[in-house]
Amino acid sequence: MSGFRLLDIVKFFLPLLPEVEFPDEQISFDERVVFTIASGILFLFGQLPIYGLVANAQFKIEDPFFNFRSIFAMEKGTLLELGLLPVITSAFLWQLAAGLRLINVNLGLRSDRELYQTGQKLTSFVLSFVYAAGFIYSGYFDSAIRGYDPISDSTPYGWYVFIFVQISTWSIFVTLLIEIFDKGYAFGSGILCFLTLQTATRFIAEFLGIEIYPVANSNKSESYGAFINFTRNLSFNLNSLASNVLNSFSRLNLPNLTQFYVTLLSILAVIYFQNCRIELPIRSTKVRGMNNVYPIRLLYTGALPILFAYTILINLQIFGYFVYVTLQNTKTSSFIISLLAKFKLDSYSNNLGLTSGFLYYFTNSTSLFNTLLSPIRTVVYASTVIVLSSWFADKWSYMSGSAPKDISKTFKEQGISISGKRDISITKELGRVIPVAAVSGAFILAALAISGDLLGGLGKGASAVIGVSSAFGVLEEFMMEYQQTGGNSQFTQAFGGL
Amino acid sequence: MSSSSAQAPGGLRSAVKRKTTADKKAQSGNALPLSTRSAGAGGSSSTMMKLFTEEAQGLRVDPLVVLFLAVGFIFSVIILHVFAKITGKFT
Amino acid sequence: MAAEGLEKLTEIPVEFFKDGSAFIKKCQKPDQKEYFKIIRAVGVGFIMMGVVGYAVKLVHIPIRYLIV
Prior knowledge:
The structure holds three protein chains of three kinds.
Chain A: H1 6-13, E1 18-20, H2 29-45, H3 57-60, H4 85-99, H5 110-137, H6 157-185, H7 190-208, E2 212-214, E3 221-223, H8 226-236, H9 241-250, H10 257-274, E4 277-284, E5 291-297, H11 304-329, H12 334-340, E6 342-346, E7 351-356, H13 368-373, H14 375-399, H15 404-414, E8 416-418, H16 425-457, H17 460-485, H18 490-495
Antiparallel strand pairs in A: 2-3, 4-5, 4-8, 6-7
Chain B: H1 2-6, H2 12-28, E1 59-61, H3 63-90
Chain C: H1 2-26, H2 32-67
């Protein structure tokens, strides 16, 4: 048993997996800006409709994952169908496995680190194959495949292959784009940068989106942007004003104003909490009279704990749905199926909503009304998110490279110590502050995300929380780089007049 | 001339050396690090999720190649769409 | 045994809430001026990203219309 290691399996695939080269020389500031923008735009171009689906497929697909998809940039009926889900899931799996010592890996060794990294990539590829195959198997695309009638026609294997190849290939490209970020060609971490970009885009699109979509199963059409829709409703039908205003706050098929306000409030709150910190007074042991402060943020672990919690939830939801479909295909008694899940199609938005069963308790509700109507689900859902994210924050604050021990090591290297403390007690002092900060920060963010969900934000509050707090990390790196080398950047000169 | 090209300063040999010394240094600390960053390499920090910070073996590709391949893939999907539309019109 | 476990289970959150609220009380919170400054800085970045992203999204609409 001890001789076998998971990493040895990875070694087998090593020559097959693409690996982005490290830059030969220092990447200039301008080049990094170009790489960031180029990969960002490419990522967004993944919203191309899948070949093989009918036009406006996003309204025809019966969608069981609508609760959480906005967090992972999963765009219905497009190449980004899987979004960032495979790579995020694989990242958490591996980093937790190493941090909790579930796998035998010595990260101090370079060779092991390389295998570990390749393992993450391999898992992300494999997961995207699994999700893609699962989606197709569960008949997710069936109602939108071109020229296919689920009842009378035979199984459209040709289309299935096309769809599978498209979404899994794009998912691989997304992983490689993330690798470009992480290797230092662009700013920040690929995952967080894409999440931020996605959130920002969604935020603007949902407020001001001018495109007009037909409403499913009716002959009306509505604007995508909640605000645009609101004003359109105001000007056209004055006699049915009340119902129209209500509609712009509560429609489910397209973004509504409630979701917008939830997002906005979450963003403002996150910015506030992001700047809460405890400042530990530090002094230099080398230079006398050099006093400074070392800030320990309340959001010590940033957005990662909530991202983790939602990753667990959506995976539960997706694999639960696969099991549900499998059970249905094998003609298991409907009682057992109803214990697991019971879906009901909302004909207006074509969302497959859960109405009861095990999975039901781990989803957010579509409106405040539903939240109040099912208190057990609300409590179970909220406590799941809070417990998962607090647990993760606690663990992560120890195993990411910024644990108390690591910080005190850097302190020692730089000749810094906390005022009024001896060198040895630095770790202890930091150990008293950091986990508390991490867990309380995660708790607050989770509470924010949940309150958005309970108000009917459908994961949009959570996605805003994650997006904005990721933005801080990316912006910080950007500003640091800018101050160091920005002086002789072409872009600064070009935009200097602005 | 030839000697300088055979052994460029900071070339492969010194890189290998650096790797091995870094490995030895890491081994001397007896506690196993919990993450790549606490092992002294890059990687996820407390707020950032960085996955691919090491240069592993594998099919080496330039980042520009990745970008161009991605664009190529998108174009191939677009072409499929267009093709389907054109053939759909005439039949 | 069970009671002990239950006690422990309630103890952890209580202790955590105590620590957490003490921490938050001790926290240095951003004052209004700082807060607005940050909101502006982040807001500009965020909205710029959003507009670029949405522009790409808008480009998709005619493409979609043409090809699907």
